[in-house]
Design brief:
The complex is a heterodimer of chains A (318) and B (400). Chain A is mainly α. Helices cover 71% and strands 4% of the residues of chain A. The mean pLDDT of chain A is 82. Classes of the chains: A mainly alpha (318), B mainly alpha (400).
Chain lengths: 318, 400
């Protein structure tokens, strides 16, 4: 009985961590889909960009080597690699998102959804190939700092029910939930969020009200991209990375997430991500071979039984 | 004359694209005399047969000579023509679904892969190529029925995601729990099929003494291709196919007419899966290997989509051009070493991705659509609005 409790607790904790990544990806995809009715198959590419930029920042700011050390900086008080990456990666993602919106998405807003799928699918291929060419197809081990704010995060900590759990993962869960919470507040409580929300319901009406929705479009797209890049940064600190992760670990799960949660709904993306995260973590700890299969079949069942998802507000592409 | 052409042009965009344009293009006449011919099966089949006869010669021998002259190996290798045709068969079927019925499936690798796997398993009992193809396509059909039955209930993105999830579930099954059947990560290699006619004609035997690209295997795939073109043409030019097209344009209208939309969409799905199954079994016979990544991974489905869209969804033959470009880039261009650029190598997918994006952007009707537009334009109807219809879509995004 105690054993079961431990299992359930660690399943939930691992599920929370995986689910947070899915949720970050899902929010980005869903606000873009909801607001602009634009299907972004290149969303995984943004994750990929985030992961590699994160890796780069990690490497270059690690104080015993890298650029900062070369510049003569040997100590700035704490292990700054991850903190620097937390700032830099979303900014890069934001910028890439702005560019993508302007040059890839905008010309396709009025085209059929299959054209949008196809062009972003092609873009995803291109990004993946560029990464392969520039960095190579090799796999990198996950990188995580040993201390953050002076707190040692390399050792597992002992939690009441779960037992030993890597403290770095706890930190990851915390910061991911924080970002998700802030995004949620930004969309639910600010004027910008109001426009976004209105846009997901009826963008034509928002335009008629005299709100300059194109600027909101760019911002929404860039915000989604920044979240995806941030998810990539988290991913790089706990999982191996290679050029394939963009589609394998980001794009497909992001789609599954919004299918479960309901297209166009931020709340749905969060809920969907967490549900999928718990499913995959439960299956991995029990019948790992069946983990992915159960995940996909769950989503298929969801689509058949409740196609609008848990919190679906709009029917996109039906 | 003009009357006739105008009519043809009006019908062109999505509706009547078909085999029609193929013939006008190939014979470069495009007059009213051909209008009657183009819908006739025998003409389509004969024209395709003629193209199939010269295809390996052009691809391997002529390009090989040209390649020698310019110092780059741009000619195909002996097995490439067959490979192109195998994918050609698949995309003809895929296009019935995507181009005509308007359903974008991201799960056709499931049918391709399951057919290849079942053909590989069957070859351990009876290594007859024809039986392997039959078994493979049967398995694909049986699989497509339930998957289609469930997926068809949703449309658009949801349909794409549903087919993707089923395909991926199958992929992970083949990798993990189903490894007892599929050999897991290793798949099957060195699958040897007998020759045709009870082993009397080995598949790699040359048909012609000089040209080594004409093998029994090529003849076999060419015959299958002819059958595929014939069947595809029959479907497109039948009332049945007309309903597929109508579904692609406006589903609701079809429903109002009183037709059972669900049944027609399911049939389109199953038919396209049969083509994919035939292609999958042929792929196994040709390449003699199959493993989960080539057979079942969703990128393979994506490749079918790329080929179809690259070639052009509005016509019967169009997607075959896409299959050709795809396989040519993958197998030949990847080995080319141009003077300034240097070796292309693994950049080929980048090249392909870029071409693909360009095509989707500028020519939504694919290479084939672009070619037929060009043909029409060359015929002296630049004012016909034909060339206006395509680029117009590119600046459609200026919504503000």
């Amino acid at each position: 009985m105690v054993l079961l409790q431990v299992d359930i607790a660690s399943i939930l904790l691992n599920g929370l961590q995986q689910g947070a990544i899915y949720a970050l990806l899902g929010i980005g995809l869903t606000i873009i889909l909801g607001t602009m009715e634009f299907l972004n198959l290149a969303h995984g590419a943004l994750y990929l960009v985030g992961a590699y930029v994160g890796l780069l920042v990690f490497r270059e700011t690690t104080l015993s080597s890298g650029l900062l050390h070369g510049a003569g900086i040997t100590t700035i008080g704490f292990d700054g690699g991850f903190l620097a990456a937390i700032v830099i990666v979303p900014i890069v993602g934001f910028a890439v998102g702005l560019l993508m919106e302007r040059f890839v998405a905008e010309p396709f807003y009025d085209r059929p959804e299959t054209d949008q799928l196809l062009v972003t699918f092609g873009l995803a291929l291109i990004v993946e190939e560029i990464v392969k060419q520039v960095i190579g197809g090799n796999t990198f081990q996950p990188v995580s700092p040993s201390t953050i704010f002076g707190v040692n995060v390399s050792q597992p900590v002992s939690l009441p029910v779960v037992g030993l759990f890597p403290s770095w993962r706890l930190f990851i869960i915390g910061i991911a939930l924080l970002v998700i919470g802030l995004t949620y507040i930004a969309i639910e409580r600010t004027d910008f969020g109001l426009v976004v929300q209105a846009g997901t319901h009826d963008s034509e009406m928002v335009r008629l009200l005299g709100i300059k929705i194109t600027r909101s479009y760019s911002l929404v797209f860039a915000l989604g991209a920044a979240l995806a890049a941030f998810a990539g940064l988290i991913g790089v600190s706990i999982q191996t990375i290679s050029p394939q992760i963009g589609t394998e670990r980001a794009l497909v799960p992001a789609f599954l997430t919004i299918v479960v949660g309901g297209a166009g709904s931020v709340r749905g993306a969060i809920a969907g991500g967490l549900v999928l995260g718990v499913i995959i973590s439960a299956m991995t700890q029990t019948y790992s071979q069946w983990a992915q299969i159960v995940l996909y079949l769950f989503v298929a069942a969801m689509l058949i039984v409740k196609p609008e998802g848990l919190f679906g507000s709009v029917e996109v592409g039906e | 004359m003009t009357d006739d052409l105008d009519r043809a042009e009006e019908a062109d965009p999505v509706t009547d694209g078909g085999s029609t344009v193929t013939e006008t293009e190939r014979t470069s006449a495009g007059g009213s005399g051909l209008a009657g011919l183009r819908e006739r099966d025998d003409f389509v089949v004969i024209a395709t047969a003629a193209a199939l006869v010269v295809f390996p010669f052009l691809l391997v021998d002529v390009l090989g000579v040209v390649g020698d002259l310019i110092g780059m190996s741009i000619g195909g290798y002996a097995g490439l023509p067959s490979l192109v045709l195998i994918y050609g068969i698949i995309v003809i079927g895929f296009n019935l679904l995507l181009g005509y019925t308007g359903l974008l499936s991201f799960g056709h690798a499931a049918f391709f892969g399951s057919a290849a796997y079942s053909a590989a398993l069957f070859s351990q009992i009876v290594p007859s190529p024809i039986l392997m193809v039959i078994v493979g396509s049967l398995v694909a059909t049986l699989l497509a029925w339930p998957i289609g039955f469930v997926s068809i209930r949703r449309s658009g993105v949801y349909f794409a995601v549903l087919t993707l999830t089923f395909g991926q579930a199958l992929y992970f099954y083949a990798l993990g729990p189903g490894a007892w059947l599929t050999n897991g990560d290793n798949g099957f290699s060195d699958v040897a099929a007998h020759g045709l006619f009870l082993g009397a004609l080995p598949l790699d035997a040359p048909l012609l003494p000089v040209f080594d690209s004409y093998t029994v295997m090529y003849a076999f795939t060419a015959v299958m291709m002819l059958i595929a073109v014939w069947v595809g043409n029959r479907i497109i030019n039948s009332p049945y196919g007309l309903i597929f097209e109508a579904l692609g344009e406006n589903e609701q209208r079809v429903e109002f007419v009183g037709l059972n939309v669900f049944r027609y969409k399911l049939m389109a799905f199953v038919i396209s899966a049969v083509f994919a199954g035939v292609g999958g079994a042929m792929f196994l016979i040709h390449e003699q290997y199959i493993h989960p990544t080539t057979g079942l991974y969703w990128i393979q489905s994506g490749d079918f989509v790329i080929m179809t869209v690259l070639g052009g969804t509005g016509s019967l033959i169009g997607p075959v051009f896409g299959a050709f470009v795809f396989e040519y880039v993958a197998n030949v261009i990847s080995g080319v070493n141009p003077p300034v650029i240097g070796p292309i190598g693994s950049l080929w997918r980048f090249v392909l991705g870029a071409v693909f994006v360009f095509i989707v952007w500028v020519f939504p009707r694919g290479i084939y659509g672009a070619l037929s537009d060009l043909g029409a334009w060359l015929l002296g109807r630049s004012g016909g609005g034909d060339d206006g219809s395509d680029p117009a879509a590119t600046d459609g995004g200026e919504s503000e």
